[in-house]
Write a sequence for this structure.
């Protein structure tokens, strides 16, 4: 039966005349002629014929009803619009109403399927894990992020209780006590290095939404922040303690000797300069990390900068080291001259601090494929492999006591890292304990300016 079989005219008739009225009208239209014939036959003495006609009419009517009932039953077993039964009269109205009802059901089903698809796609696009739980905390659905966070499987774990799959005591207590206004943190058993924040949100009458969020990086940032504050406080406390101690000593002395005054003042000046260097490095690092800070760029004569750095390195060394230059490239860079001077200068000054007297330091400017590299190679004490990955962390020192003796603030390589990042460059470190080190700043070809530009 096609959609055009039931026209809008028929729809209007159904609305205007209720089906019960149409039913009785059609019964009367069949019953009156047959009844008149039976009454006529009986009146003129043809009783047997009247009875036979009545039985035949009833059998025909019964057969017709059974036929239509069979068609209805067959269609209800597989109710498709394409196979909807056809009939006239009361059964036609019934079939038409069932046909229209099936059309509405299918339309609603398509809408529901589309809504469910949009919900599923939206939940899959979320950066957080989502698990739908029923009133008994059984899993009804979860997205891919939740599978990854909690080690679940949509094929294997649907219908299982969440506490059966996640058995950490504090999580089980959280679910059982229904403290849904709070969240709970946990390290999943299958990924102990990951820290998750988990919270349940009840919705509708009995359903619950369990949401997981990976806060590992946030926790690491918090640890770095706390360590940074602690390190800054520690670095400032030592020189302030020294200065305060000398001042108290001088105040307690009634007639301080001039030589003692000079020695104490010199020590206080050294500690004051140490604090000044620390503050300057902190300000430099803050400026480099700030995206809002101005980043002026211009052509930078790197060969000339290398010569300046060599001169500064010789001054810092005080003749204790052999400082040499290897200029294998004359290209310039497009960048910020102050930031490049600070970053490359830190590499050179570190080489002086960690190279014993009599050692050698080489500043090199060369090509490496399409890239260009500034490197500082020394014959110093070298670095053990377990320390190399952490060298650019703020205040990280391989040998804390040696760093203080040489005047380092612990921020030099952190400044180098951020200055190079602002120039799309990278820091490479090659070192062996007792064999010296090579620190290289590798600049991409996009930053290179041909010579004499």
């Amino acid at each position: 039966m096609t959609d055009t079989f039931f026209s809008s005219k028929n729809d209007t008739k159904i609305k205007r005349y209720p089906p019960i009225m149409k039913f009785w009208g059609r019964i009367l239209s069949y019953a009156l002629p047959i009844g008149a014939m039976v009454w006529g036959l009986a009146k003129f003495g043809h009783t047997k014929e009247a009875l036979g006609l009545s039985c035949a009419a009833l059998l025909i009517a019964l057969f017709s009803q059974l036929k239509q009932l069979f068609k209805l039953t067959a269609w209800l077993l597989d109710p498709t619009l394409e196979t909807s039964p056809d009939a006239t009269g009361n059964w036609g109205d019934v079939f038409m109403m069932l046909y229209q009802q099936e059309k509405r059901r299918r339309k609603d089903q398509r809408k529901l399927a589309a809504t469910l698809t949009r919900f599923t796609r939206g939940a899959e696009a979320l950066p957080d894990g989502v698990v739908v739980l029923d009133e008994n905390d059984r899993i009804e659905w979860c997205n891919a992020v939740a599978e990854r966070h909690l080690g679940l499987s949509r094929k294997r774990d649907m219908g299982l209780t969440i506490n059966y799959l996640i058995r950490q005591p504090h999580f089980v207590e959280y679910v059982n006590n229904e403290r849904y206004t709070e969240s709970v943190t946990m390290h999943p058993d299958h990924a102990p290095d990951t820290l998750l924040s988990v919270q349940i949100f009840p919705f509708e009458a009995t359903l619950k939404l369990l949401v997981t969020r990976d806060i590992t990086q946030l926790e690491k940032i918090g640890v770095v922040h706390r360590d940074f504050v602690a390190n800054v406080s520690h670095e400032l406390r030592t020189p302030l303690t020294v200065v305060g101690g000398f001042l108290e000593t001088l105040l307690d002395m009634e007639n301080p000797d001039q030589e003692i005054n000079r020695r104490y003042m010199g020590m206080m000046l050294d500690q004051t300069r140490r604090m000044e260097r620390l503050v300057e490095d902190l300000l430099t690092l803050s400026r480099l990390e700030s995206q809002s800070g101005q980043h002026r760029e211009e052509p930078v004569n790197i060969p000339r900068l290398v010569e300046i750095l060599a001169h500064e390195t010789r001054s810092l060394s005080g003749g204790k080291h052999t400082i040499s230059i290897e200029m294998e490239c004359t290209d310039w860079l497009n960048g910020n001259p102050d930031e490049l001077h600070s970053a490359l200068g830190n590499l050179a000054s570190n080489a002086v601090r960690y190279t014993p007297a009599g050692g050698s330091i080489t500043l090199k400017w060369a090509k490496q494929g399409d890239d260009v590299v500034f490197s500082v190679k020394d014959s110093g004490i070298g670095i053990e492999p377990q320390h190399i990955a952490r060298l650019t962390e703020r205040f990280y020192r391989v040998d804390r006591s040696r760093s203080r003796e040489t005047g380092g603030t612990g921020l030099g390589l952190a400044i180098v890292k951020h200055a190079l990042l602002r120039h799309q460059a990278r820091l490479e470190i090659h070192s062996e304990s007792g064999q010296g080190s090579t620190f290289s700043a590798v600049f991409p070809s996009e930053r290179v300016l041909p010579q004499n530009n």
Q: What stands out?
A: The longest helix spans residues 89-125. Residues 1-17 have pLDDT under 50 and may be disordered. The longest strand covers residues 360-368.
